[in-house]
Amino acid sequence: MPAELTFAAPRRAKPPRHLADLTPDERRAAVTELGEKPFRAKQLAQHYFGHLESDTAKMTDLPAESRERLGEALLPPLLTPVRHITCDDGMTRKTLWRAFDGVLFESVLMRYPDRVTLCVSSQAGCGMNCPFCATGQNGLTRNLSTGEIVDQVVSVARDLARGEVAGGPGRISNIVFMGMGEPLANYRRVLDSVRRITDPVPGGLGISQRGVTVSTVGLVPAIDKLIAERLQVRLAVSLHAPDDELRDELVPVNTRWKVAEVLDAAWRYAGTTGRRVSIEYALIRDINDQAWRADLLGELLAGHLVHVNLIPLNPTPGSKWTASRPEDEREFVRRLQAHGVSVTIRDTRGQEIDGACGQLAAAEQ
GO CC annotations (predicted)? Predict the structure, then answer.
């Protein structure tokens, strides 16, 4: 495999062990090792997942002499918010996080009238090397731990519950793994984090699996592994081109798994789960937005359980890649619909706050 397509993250110090890294059985074993009764694990989990509380000093149902020890061992601080920046009257909030080792990554909260969506990162950086993506141009620093992924959700959910986000108190309804990183290149930790996010309290946060979307550029063996999990999460495939010649350039992993192979895996996922697959397609001016490519995409997708999300490209500073002209965007939509393909244009939130993931981290560094 070419060096630029290597998926392994560089070896670095591991994040501290956290409650969210552990299954319920592992939590009970961990508290027992600390000399505590096994039921203390459920108490900790109820506070963290149920009450969104990470400070054991505030857990008054725990023995006073045990709180600090349990906190240090199972609820160490994982993430520090470097900054929050907002737009859309505060309804969109981007957070830059710093981990224990100084690496930076981002999440984005988006409030809509009918839902609250959090976009989370699964890696610090990304190794997929897509040239139009800010994260891809920074390379891969390391995988995030399960705890670091879940703590993005818990931290933001806490702010929402406490009314610290515009729009008043609320709850997260949807999680999308579309932040920094390729989720399926960090498969085990992403899968474990999905379970923590969706398991009922106190096992997890109790968010519906049907409210979770996992994206991928098309790692076919990992898609097949996900199929075998029999989850009800939505699969989103970042396609960006319907032909191999262009996709080899835009999404370099296409040199391993071609468009046909990626779409076949997507149809297997839809057939097994009954869930409609999302095709993510960033419209890039004069690159992939031609009418003939819309027709080719429509031919590939017609008759399948699929929906296309067209994404007006969030341009990055100094990049030659930019968003399509409005008239080309409209024609692309018209041609997909003519093939009977369901399509929407994604709400372009966050452009004024470096909405494309990776831009804020790059600016900070």
Answer: cytoplasm
Predicted local confidence at residue 320, as pLDDT:
85
Contact 312, 283 (CB under 8 A): yes
Range of the domain at 57: 19-74
- Binding positions for [4Fe-4S] cluster are 126, 130, 133
CB 243 within 8 A of CB 293: yes
Is there a domain that residue 231 lies in?
yes
The Cα 74–Cα 247 span in angstroms is 44
Task: Please give the distance of CA 74 from its chain centroid, rounded to a whole number.
Answer: 24
Whole-number average pLDDT of the chain: 93
pLDDT in tens, 285-338: 999 999 999 999 999 999 999 999 999 998 777 778 899 999 999 999 999 999
The annotation places the binding site for S-adenosyl-L-methionine at 181-182, 215, 238-240, 314
Do residue 57 and residue 102 come from a single domain? no
Q: Which helix (H) or strand (E) holds 283?
A: strand 277-283
36, 106, 148, 280: the active-site residue:
106
The model scores a pTM over 0.90: yes
E strand spans, 41-135: 80-87, 92-98, 104-111, 116-119, 123-125
Element containing residue 249 per DSSP (H, E): helix 244-250
Nearest C-alpha neighbor of 128 from the set 251, 284, 280? 251
Exposure string (b/e) for 250-267, b if CB count within 10 Å is 16 or more?
A: bbbbbeebbbeebbebbe
Whole-angstrom distance, CA of residue 181 vs CA of residue 212: 16
**Over 60: is that where the pLDDT of 360 sits?**
no
The verdict on residue 161 lying in a domain is yes
Is residue 243 in some structural domain?
yes
In a domain, 24, yes or no: yes
Instruction: State yes or no: is 87 an active-site residue.
Output: no
Does one domain contain both 64 and 178? Answer: no
Q: Is the peptide bond before 221 cis (omega within 30 degrees of 0)?
A: no
pLDDT in tens, 146-193: 999 999 999 999 999 999 999 999 999 999 999 999 999 999 999 999
290 lies in the same domain as 168: yes
Any idea what DSSP says for residue 47?
I
Q: How many CA atoms lie within 13 A of 159 on its CB side?
A: 17
Is residue 357 among the annotated active site residues?
Answer: yes
